[in-house]
Amino acid sequence: MRLSSVIDILISESQASYQNLKDVASKVYCRGYNVLMLRISMLLFVVTCYGQTLNRGNGSEPDSLNPHLAQGLNSHHILYDLYEGLYQYDKYGKPALAAAESVEISDDGLIWTFTINPQARWSDGNPVLATHFKQAWQQASTPSTTAPYAQLFDNLIQQEKLNVFINKQNQLVVHLNQPNPLFPEQLSLPIFMPQHPQSGLYNGAYVLSNWQMQERITLQKNKHHKDASNIYFNTVNYWVTENQNSELNRFLAGELDITETIPDSKVSWLQKHQPDALRIAPYYGTFFLGLDLRDKHLANRELRQALSLSIDRDILVNKVLKSGEHMANGLIPQVNGHSGLDLIKAKSLLKQSGFDYKTEKLTLLYNNSQNQKKIALAVAAMWRQFLGVQTQLQNQEWKVFVNNRKKTGKQVFRGGWIADYYDPMNFLQLFQSDSHFNYYGLESVEYDATLKAWPTATIQERTQLQQQAETILATEVPMIPLYHYVSRHLVNANIQGFENNLLDKHLSRYIKQ
């Protein structure tokens, strides 16, 4: 199928669904927002009680609610409600002291002494102790735990031991190997959250009440939380909303207060008909396609380069997505990207690679999502039209996809990274040889050495190191950058406290009505 035909199909699908969307919106308007929508497929209905229940779309089923093992954002969203680290994101996406009442930092930046807030409580009413942090960190940093974010403990480990101590004043004393001004941002992440020896206890604003697989996760306010009196919603429902069109319809029907995202094809309609609810904002992340360098075809660098140079990012951003994303030519988010299309060079590289596009195919793996499907279709059409390379599309449920992308045997796969904190290194670490997130099989001594020099480098030296690292990635092509994200939500006009921020962090405790 030609690229122009694929684009026409994507546009026609948007137009065909317009009348259906208009009808839904009309029904909602006529009936008002006090709607009882019978959902036969789920055998339940949702009633939004003001001041009582917050209903949030959350995309795919969470991969885990264990702070040590969770990877996806849809898991992290819930964990930020259930647990509270020494720091926690405020409503503007900035780290603020949480379970810690205060912190003292030595002049050399190597010793951080945290005093645990005496009002911090677990959901059974017992106090949060410094030992709950130390024991949780010891477990998370143990190799047998296989925690995805375990590398964040590297700066806390000396001679294979966690350099963390407890004194009599219920203080947690942390010794770093190198100064780290971003330590508060890292301490806000789930991997650094405390854990109680008894399962089922939480020290966050909410506790887990019910988990109905592939449907919803229900949280109830933690009555022992130190700020419980200022937390507006008693109940929070996180709904599984893999289908963006269904999620949109549920929002228009009054069933959801906040959506996880919006369908690409509905942006123009929403800008016209739901301008007060639509939230599109800059987001510190990059979408890319991963390439498994261990595959017999993709082990060829010329083929990888040819695939990258035959994708028109201008079409993806302005014809397919149309939500304000920026074209990406590298891993670190920037705003001055270009299409990256160079067909003369791409065809020459394809010929050099020896890949026989007449008999061989590539497989592109992605998770269940209408938006992901559109990207996959458009990229496959470009490779077919520009290079003659045929691509078999394969989609999987999120949990299955998350597991399979770690394994060998794949070829091209949906990638992307939303920064955990505002630092280029958070992106670059993905491709280190020993990174848990190195699903690409990249093993570059030069790249590893470049990143190894980062911790002790000056700001100017880090700029140079970043450029060196990105040059290596552009040459080796373990991934193909496509665009830099924007966050996209629909937020009920009655909702307050949902503040746009670069990391798109919106804890339920800050949201009111």
Q: Specify the number of helices.
A: 14
The overall pLDDT, averaged over residues, is 91
How many E strands? 19
Q: Structural class of the secondary elements?
A: alpha+beta
Descriptive report:
With 513 residues, this protein is of the alpha+beta class. The protein is 30% helix and 20% strand. The protein has 14 helices and 19 strands. The strands form five sheets. Strands 13, 14, 15, 16, 17, 18 and 19 form a seven-stranded mixed beta sheet that branches. A four-stranded mixed beta sheet has the order 1-12-11-10, with helices on one face. The protein has a four-stranded antiparallel beta sheet with strand order 4-5-9-8, covered by helices on one side. Helix 7 (301-309) packs antiparallel against helix 9 and helix 13 packs antiparallel against helix 14. The protein starts with a helix and ends in a 23-residue tail after the last strand. The relative contact order is 0.15. The model is unreliable at 15-19 and 24-50 (pLDDT under 50).
